[in-house]
Amino acid sequence: MTPPQSLPSLKRVAVCGGTHGNEMSGVYLAKYWLRDPSELQRGTFHTTPFLSNPRAIEQCVRYIERDLNRMFTAEVLNSKKSDADPYEVQRAQEINQVFGPKGSPQAYDFMFDLHNTTANMGSCLIANSEQSLLTMHMCNYIQKHYTASPCPIFLYQLPEQEPYSISSVAKAGLAIELGPQPQGVARADLLTQMRSIMSCALDFIELFNKGTMFPAFESETYKYVGSVDYPRYPDGEISAVVHPSLQDKDFQPLKPGDPIFQTLSGEDIFYEGDDSTYVIFINEAAYYEKKIAFSKMKKCTFSQPALQRKF
Amino acid sequence: MTPPQSLPSLKRVAVCGGTHGNEMSGVYLAKYWLRDPSELQRGTFHTTPFLSNPRAIEQCVRYIERDLNRMFTAEVLNSKKSDADPYEVQRAQEINQVFGPKGSPQAYDFMFDLHNTTANMGSCLIANSEQSLLTMHMCNYIQKHYTASPCPIFLYQLPEQEPYSISSVAKAGLAIELGPQPQGVARADLLTQMRSIMSCALDFIELFNKGTMFPAFESETYKYVGSVDYPRYPDGEISAVVHPSLQDKDFQPLKPGDPIFQTLSGEDIFYEGDDSTYVIFINEAAYYEKKIAFSKMKKCTFSQPALQRKF
A214 - beta bridge partners? Predict the structure, then answer.
């Protein structure tokens, strides 16, 4: 059994909304916290709210030129500045300057990134991998203390892949992905959910900073495996929609032979994988352009050692 | 009692999708019907499918420069052409040339226009006013024969107002508005609903053309009264979201004193109207920019005379 781990206390925490400018729960919360940040504050650390993509927020679009949440790679962050750079490249470099530099000792200790999806994903917690012990303990704490809905954990990073998301600028991070909510809409129920989860996560940091010992546990997670595109006509146009029996079934198992699409002429198309899988981001509006009808995951359990702050 | 009315048979019918380029049920159906129009055909008339706003569809946005569905006024349609015109002005003039001219004997007999909303409006039938006898009889037929969900009738035109919507180019028209569906998403269930309602409407035209007598009836409709904006800070930013107890309650009554908004600081805001009203387009994504949180309606019943085609 792995011995208890210790990590330094957290001093500087950031929380951003509007990394995608039409995902409104985070946009509304970050704007509100910029007016009144009091509910973010705890005794032992400071939390800074910010808007990730102000121009996209203003236009209520996901992004202006590039998906900002794919820009936080060494290649983009270290590229030579030019006025011809896409807006999101410039913005990623600015964010890296203020909250990073990524991978450096000066980087913020933690970053929360607030998202919505049109998929029926409930209250999903997204981390890059199971190896971020602090984030895994935070997720476990949220799952135990925020009981209004299940909070499944999705790990997006493939083996050998460099983390590219905005929260990777800080030493550790977590994306909170709530759905279903249409782009450009702020629902009161999801706003309340997101606020409660954020509050719970900040409470965790406060307890951690104060020296609470968090015991070892088994984390049940869903790990990204790959994605499935829509069926298409020879000319590239989509020829089928997500099957009504798959729609809204995020985090449920999909078995070989289950229907996944329905063509406009009424034909069912079945899942031909060899094994059962779990599905996520089913019929997400923003992923049509990425050629993703849904993503596949495997369920993984990891043993996480106990955690306490370094004294 | 008004005597039975007679109207000429219908020869040319049009159906368009993508008047708003990110409302996907109509986009997908119109694209499919352009590949295979057979399900639109009946014995006594011809139906032409088309895409209203191809550039907006390509970019998956509501519109490029102007809301196309507000462009069909005499002023816009008769303005002198210029290359500097907004794309939707050009497109409205093209559509008017092919399916109009609006108000002329050459205009198409009927136009269907397929829409989605992020609001929980179910299967809503939208006409300009109760005075279009053919459309009112069609709505009544749909309500009786499409029984999978209620199909309330919304009349959008204010007294003295010129009809401005795309279907006003034809001699009569109907918009079918299905929700809730996020912008940019095509759900199989709504696609099926829209197709069934279209099929039912085409059956009605076929029966009408064949000489069926449609008896007099009372039509229960909802008539547009006005709209309510979101509460705002002095700087114009929205300060409250639609109240959770109002969200998703389209077509339900709203009474004075009912909560309608919730501020981000947790305060409830109540409806201060003098009388009960009915609400629609609650939290529609596309209406944030129009400063509409929801619209108000009055319920009206109209006596409609019997209808038969002119022999």
Answer: A307
Provide DSSP, A169-202: GSSSEEEEEEES--TT---HHHHHHHHHHHHHHH
Question: CA nearest A262 in B: which residue?
Answer: B188
CA distance B12 to B108: 5
* A125-170 pLDDT tens trace: 999 999 999 999 999 999 999 999 999 999 998 888 899 999 999 9
Global confidence as pTM: 0.96
Q: What is the CATH number of the domain that holds A167?
A: 3.40.630.10
Cβ-count burial B9-28 (b if 16+ within 10 Å, e if not): ebebbbbbbbbbbbbbbbbb
How distant is the Cα of A110 from the closest Cα of chain B, in angstroms?
25
> Which residues from chain A sit within 8 angstroms of residue B39, using beta carbons?
none
Please tell me which of the candidates A118, A188, A241 has its beta carbon nearest to residue B191.
A241
How far away is chain B from the Cα of A183, in angstroms, using its nearest Cα? Answer: 7
Taking phi first (over 0 means left), then psi (-120 to 50 degrees means alpha), and beta for anything else, what does residue A48 get? beta
Q: Does residue B147 belong to any structural domain of this protein?
A: yes
pLDDT, tens digit (0-9, with 9 covering 90-100), for B262-308: 999 999 999 998 899 999 999 999 999 999 999 999 999 999 999 99
| One-letter amino acid for residue A171 of the chain | K
Is some CB atom of chain B closer than 8 A to the CB atom of A117? Answer: no
β-strands A259-263, A217-228: how paired?
unpaired
Which structural domain range is residue A172 located in? Answer: 5-221+303-309
